[in-house]
Design a protein that fits this description.
alpha+beta, five-stranded mixed sheet, 9 strands, about 20% helix, disordered N terminus, disordered C terminus
Length: about 200
């Protein structure tokens, strides 16, 4: 035993604390709590999984006045018509706007509901949609019709304004209760390499 250890032992003995002269095993019930399981408890951080997204198409207005498809990603759990139209209402990104794309739909347009039944998409709109008139209204309707028709099975689009059915203008200026992409042929997307000289946005 070293001198320091001997001095410590004598000090403890002087205080009345029993001192073992050699190592001895402790009874299990005398081991301090927690020493039998020396590993520190671990915590697992839980994070919400990132939603899986799927690409959809929306249609914006190009520099020539024709609608042009652009891609958007929406959660795979909600690739329904209302979600797709919600992405359309947001409008072009900064990069798309810089490339000349725009939207006749104001961001203040609200999608109150959208359903598909028997090939017909019924779109219930609010906000500033009812304030559109003339060519901007025709372009806005075309954007919605082409966007809705890009979803499987949609052959026509019926419009409602705050729940009430309304007729909408097509490219010729005629008011129709059910709009299809064929009625917007002058605004249809232009195939790459096709000249658009001499074409312009329709007038009511």
């Amino acid at each position: 035993m070293t001198l320091a250890a001997a001095a410590a032992a004598l000090g403890l003995a002087a205080c009345g604390v029993p001192v073992d002269t050699q190592p001895a095993a402790l009874a299990r019930n005398r081991i301090p709590f927690g020493l039998l399981d020396p590993s520190a408890p671990t915590t697992t951080a839980t994070t919400e999984p990132s939603p899986i997204e799927v690409p959809v198409q929306i249609f914006l207005i190009g520099p020539t006045g024709h609608v042009e498809p652009v891609a958007r990603d929406v959660p795979v759990s909600a690739p329904d018509l209302a979600t797709v139209l919600g992405a359309l209402v947001i409008g072009p990104t900064d990069a798309e706007a810089a490339a000349g794309l725009q939207s006749a739909l104001s961001p203040q347009t609200t999608v109150l509901g959208a359903t598909i039944a028997g090939g017909i998409a019924t779109v219930n709109l609010g906000g500033t949609f009812g304030q559109l008139v003339g060519p901007p209204q025709i372009q806005a309707v075309a954007q919605i019709v082409f966007t809705a028709s890009s979803l499987p099975g949609v052959t026509g689009v019926a419009f409602e304004l705050s729940g009430a059915a309304v007729a909408v203008p097509v490219a010729s200026g005629a008011q129709v209760p059910l709009a299809t992409t064929a009625q917007f042929a002058p605004l249809a997307p232009v195939a790459p390499g096709t000249s658009t000289s001499g074409t312009s946005a329709p007038h009511a």
